[in-house]
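Quick log. Single chain, no ligands specified.
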Amino acid sequence: MRRLIGHSMPLLTWCAVEANRPKAEPYKVTLDRALQLRIAPDGKRTLFVRYTVKGSGSERQYRLPQEYGDAPGQLKLSAACAEAGRIRTHAPQGVDWTVAEDTRLEAEASTRAAALQRRDGPTLEAELRDYVEKKRRVKDGLGLKARTKADYLAAMEPPWTTKSGTRRAAGPLHPIAHKPLTSLTASDIRATYEAAARRSSRRAEYAMQILRAVLRWNGVVIPGNPLGRETAGRDRNTITTGKGDPAPIPPELLGAWWRAADRAPSQVASDYYRSSC
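-> predicted structure:
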């Protein structure tokens, strides 16, 4: 095998490397300083870099991710030597370039996966419907009451027109109902709350209760979430707890209740309110 002189050149030429054929047992050939080529019996050629990080006191071996060769996706001789040189250059400075590179690649993969999930994940509407069907109450293990289900689903409904031609506003969560749940941001939540609060502060707070429940149900963490306990108080939306009124509806008000139920934001809610009086 002909060797080339000079630190910037590989120890072996391409032809010299190609002259090494598979054997019954795997073996290694040194291509450059600390760069070795492992040739397996099946012909697979794997590249290894041997190096010692300053301060570690022990030699390390790193397998380059690409197979050696000239085909697409493989690493050529010159590129393999360059990779080995990069690792050797950082090692005397106490930096393990392979660890740093692996960390970078993992971070990029996580970022791509998160972006894909945000684009293709289930929407808030889909997750809310799943929540109202599967959620069980802690105190008795039963599902949500029909009224609660109706109220939750009504929060997502689009604008609609009654039979009499009256235009009804959309539910407070409708503007973000079709967004993937994992793509929601703190700005989305604040804008939704503020838009709903301009119509009714109580309606806005109830919508935020619903949204917070669905986020917690799915374990979705949103940086700076104004509904999260970990968010600073000045940036948090405070949700008050409704006290309600346990007193029954007086007989003289049943007619008004019935007419109000007929104007409910959804047919499901309307039927429930009428059946409960």
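The two ends are 97 Å apart (CA to CA).
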